[in-house]
Predict the structure of Ubiquitin-like domain-containing protein.
Amino acid sequence: MEPSLRGFKSNSYDQYTHAIELQEKNQRSTKMIEVVLNDRLGKKVRVKCNDDDTIGDLKKLVAAQTGTRADKIRIQKWYNIYKDHITLKDYEIHDGMGLELYYN
C-alpha cells in the first residue's frame, strides 16, 4: 500500500515518508459510529455511518430508514440546526450520541 509519487518534483525520501504518514493518518481517522436520532413523536432511528460523513449523508441514511425525503429532514441538537455540508467530526458528533430529528 505505497502511495503514488506523482506530483512530487523529486523522489526524495522525506517527501515519500510524508506521503506515507498522510495516508496512514487518513486510514486511521475514519471510523464507524452509531448515531441515535429521536423525533420526539415516539420514533427512534439508529444509523451507522462514518465520522467523516456529512450531515447531508446522514439525512440520506435516515430518509432510507424512515421513508421520508431527505430534504424534508432537519437534524439539530438543542437550538443548533446542523448544516448539510459539514461533517459529523467537525460537529464533534461521536459514537452513541443522540440528536433531534424534525420533519419540515
User: Anything to note?
Assistant: The radius of gyration is 18 Å.
